[in-house]
Amino acid sequence: MLNKQILSNTTAGYCWDLKTKERFNNPLYLEGFGYKVYSQNDEDGIIHEIFKRLGISVGRFIEFGVQDGLESNTHCLLHYGWKGMWIEGSKRYCHSIKRKFHHVIER
To answer: Which of 63, 61, 66, 62 is nearest to 92 (CA)?
Structure first.
C-alpha cells in the first residue's frame, strides 16, 4: 500500500512539474517574469511585466495594508517615479512609514 502511495505521489509530482514547465515556457503566463525587489512573492516582476505589456511606464497606485512599507507590492514603483497612496490601519506602522519614507512623502 505504501509503495502505491509513493508511486502515485511521484507520478502526480512529475505531472505537476510538466504542467509548471509548460506554463513557464508560455510567454502569456506571468509566473516566469516574477522577481522580488521589495514584494513578498515575486510580485515586483509580475507587476513590471503587466505594465510593460500595457505600455505604461509611470502612473499612480493605491495599496492597502502595507505594514511598514518595506515589503509591499508598490514600493518598487516608487523608485520608477510612480506616485501613490498607502493605506495602513496600524498607527505603529504609519509612524514607521513616515520616518522611513519621509524623503519620498515630502516630494
So the answer is: 66
